[in-house]
Amino acid sequence: MMTCADTRIELSAYSAGEVSDLTQEEVFRHVSSCSGCREAASALAAMEGRMRHLFAAAPVESPSSLSARLGLAIQQEPAVGHRLDSILRRLASFLSLHPARFAVAGAAVLAMTFVGLQLIPESRFPNRASSSVNRPSAGAERPAASIPAAEPTPGLSADIAEILSDPGSTLVAYGAGLIDPSEVVQAVSQNPSDRVAIDGERDLARRAASGELTDEERDAVRTLFGSDTPTDAKKPGDRS
Amino acid sequence: VGFGGVQRIGLQDEARLVARARDGDRGAFWELSEPEIQKIHRLLVRVSGRAEEAEDLCQEALLRALRSIQDFRGGSRFSTWLYRIALNLALSAKSARREFSRAPELMESQPDGTSAFRASPIPSPAVEAERGSERDALRAAMETLAPRQRAVVTFRIEDELPFAEIADRMDLTVGAVKAHYFQATERLRQAFARPHRGAVR
Predict the structure, then answer these.
(1) Most buried in the list A233, B60, B109, B173, measured by CB within 10 Å?
(2) Which residues in chain B (153-172) have CB-CB distances under 8 A to chain A?
(3) Residue A135 confidence (pLDDT)
(4) Is the pTM of the predicted complex or chain greater than 0.90?
(5) Gap between the Cα atoms of A201 and A203, Å rounded
(6) Cα angle value B111/B115/B116 (rounded, 5°)
(7) A4-15 and A35-57 helices cross at what angle (nearest 10)?
(8) Does the distance separating the beta carbons of B67 and A196 come in below 8 Å?
C-alpha cells in the first residue's frame, strides 16, 4: 500500500491520467480509504484552479520589439571558429554586395570554382553534412589559383537547382555568379533566413571596407583566395 | 527580422535547419529559434519575476545556444534544448539565487514538523487577490517559490504540460519534477491559506 506521502506526490499526475495502470490502481485504493489524502486532493485541485485563474488573468505579453532585438543580437554576434561553409557563405554575399568596390569578377570566378568543389560533393552526399566538422582545412583542398577562369566547373549547372532548393544557399550561388540578381530577390523574398543572412553580411562588408575584419576573417580570405584579393588590400595596417 | 508567421517546424525541416545552423548559417538558426522566443520569454518572466531581466536572459540564452550549436546533437527537439539553456541561465542568475535564498526565510518550522509562513511584510497572494490585483496575487504566489518550482508550476499549471514533457525541458527525471511540484503546491497552498493581514475573513 502506498504511503500518504507517495500518494500525494502522485495526485496531480493521477488526476491528469498520467500514471501507469498499477499506480492508478494504488492511488485509487489509497485515496478511497484515506480521508487525509482525499482532502489533499481537493486542496490541490482548488490551488491549481486558483493559480490557473491567476496565470490567465495576468498573461505575459512579450514586447513586439523583442523578436527584432534578438534577431539583431544574433546577427551581430561575432563568428566563432572558421567553418568553411560559414566563411564561404559570408564571402559569397560579401562579394555580391560590393560589386563596384572590388574586382569582383576574378574573385567570383575563384569563388565559383571553390563553391563548385566544396558544395557539390556535399550536396551529392547529404550524409556528409554531420561529419563535415572535420573536413580538411581550406588550404588542403584549395585548387591551384591558376585554374582557368572562363569555364564553369563541368557538371555545376546540373546542381544549381539542388543548391537553390536549400534556402541558405541562395547567397552562395549568387556570390559565385551562378544566378542573377533578379533570381536572388525572388529567392530571398521566399526565404526569410536569407534576409537575415544578408543583413549580417552588410555588417561584414562594412567592416571589411573600413579594414575592421578580424584576423581570423582576414586569414580565411587569404586562405581561400590567395594573397592578392580585394579584401587583403584593406587590412587595418594599411590605414596608418 | 520578425518576418513570417510563427509556426511549428516539422522534424525533417528541423533536422535540415539544425545541420545548416551547425554549419554557421544564422538564418537557419533564426528559423529554429524565432518560433520559441515568446514562449521562452514568458517562462523567463515567470521564473525571474522581472520582465526586463527576462528579455536580457532570453537574449543571452539565444546567444549561448548560437555559440554552442555544435554541442546540439539532435538528441531532443531544438526547442527543448533551448528551454534547458534558458532555464539553466535563469536558475543561475543572480536575482534568482537571491530570491531563492530569500524564499525559505518566509517559512518557519512548526512544532508539529510542518512549516508555515513567518509574519512577513510581503503581502500574501490571498490579500492581493482580494484587492482585485491578480497580477500582484500571482507575483506574491510565485515569490513564495524557489525558481525551479516556479518553472515547474508554470509548465504544469499555465502550460498544462505532462510531467514527462516538463522533465524533458528541465533535464530532470519525472520523479524529481513531481517532487518539485509537490513541494511547490504545498507552499502555494499555505500561501493562499495564509491569514489575511489586518482583516477578518
Answers:
(1) B60
(2) 153-154, 156-158, 162-164
(3) 37
(4) no
(5) 5
(6) 105
(7) 40
(8) no
Q: For residue B116, what are the β-bridge partners?
A: B108
Contact status of B19 with chain A (Cβ, < 8 Å):
yes
Extract the C-alpha cell encoding A44.
490541490
The interface predicted TM-score (ipTM) is: 0.79
Q: How many CB atoms lie within 10 A of CB A143?
A: 12
The DSSP secondary-structure symbol of B158 reads I
- Long-range CB pairs of A122-129 (<8 Å, 24+ gap) are A123/A159, A123/A162, A123/A163, A123/A166, A124/A159, A129/B19, A129/B23
Residue A233 sits at φ, ψ, to 5 deg, of -70, -5
What pLDDT score does B78 carry?
A: 93
Does B111 contact chain A (CB < 8 Å)?
no
Q: Which three cell numbers stand for residue B52?
A: 526586463
Contact B164, B174 (CB under 8 A): yes
One-letter amino acid at A178 equals L
Non-local CB neighbours of B3 within 8 Å, separated by 6+ positions: A192, A195
- Please indicate whether, in this complex, the C-beta atoms of B58 and A70 are within 8 angstroms of each other: yes
Quickly tell me which residue has 500518494 as its cell.
Answer: A7
